[in-house]
């Protein structure tokens, strides 16, 4: 389970499944840990890299070399009701941002607010 389609990057995440059967994407023991990892990454995008807009954040999350990033940015912006290039405070919109990314990555929203909030509470 990996709600945000986080790729392997060499590190070990809390809640990673012991056996990683997919060479590309991390597998977590439950969606809660995948959501936690999403939240940590998104918060780091702002604190470590200074990314302030949905466009900047999604361009890092889903780089144009492997995604239709412009459409991704538009979709997330629309779902959040926030302009693509308007500064955000990630911590202030984290549940909305995570929900929008999960919906875009999966084509559906399989997780309720309780599950998303449980994952983000682990940060």
Helix amount: 40-55%
How many E-type strands? 0
Rg, Å, rounded: 14 Å
- H/E element sequence: HHHHH
Instruction: Look at the structure and give the mean pLDDT.
Output: 96
| Ends distance | 18 Å
**Helix segment count?**
5
Categorize the overall geometry.
Answer: globular
* Strand composition percent: under 5%
Which segments are poorly predicted (pLDDT under 50) over 5 or more consecutive residues?
Answer: none
Q: Quick one: biggest sheet?
A: none
Category by helix and strand content = mainly alpha
Secondary-structure blueprint of this entry?
Elements (H helix, E strand, L loop, with lengths): L30 H19 L4 H8 L7 H12 L9 H17 L6 H9 L2
Outline:
This protein has 123 residues and is mostly helical.
Describe, in plain words, how this protein is organized in 3D.
The chain is mainly α and 123 residues long. Helices cover 53% and strands 0% of the residues. The protein has 5 helices and no strands. It has helices spanning 31-49, 54-61, 69-80, 90-106, 113-121. The radius of gyration is 14 Å and the shape is globular.
């Amino acid at each position: 389970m990996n709600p945000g389609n986080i790729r392997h990057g060499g590190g070990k995440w809390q809640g990673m499944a012991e056996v990683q059967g997919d060479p590309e994407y991390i597998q977590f023991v439950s969606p809660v840990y995948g959501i936690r990892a999403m939240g940590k990454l998104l918060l780091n995008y702002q604190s470590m890299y200074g990314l302030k807009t949905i466009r900047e954040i999604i361009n890092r999350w889903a780089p144009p070399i492997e995604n239709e990033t412009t459409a991704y940015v538009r979709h997330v912006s629309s779902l959040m009701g926030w302009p693509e290039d308007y500064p955000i405070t990630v911590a202030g919109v984290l549940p909305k941002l995570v929900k929008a990314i999960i919906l875009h990555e999966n084509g559906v929203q399989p997780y309720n607010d309780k599950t998303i909030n449980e994952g983000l509470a682990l940060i």
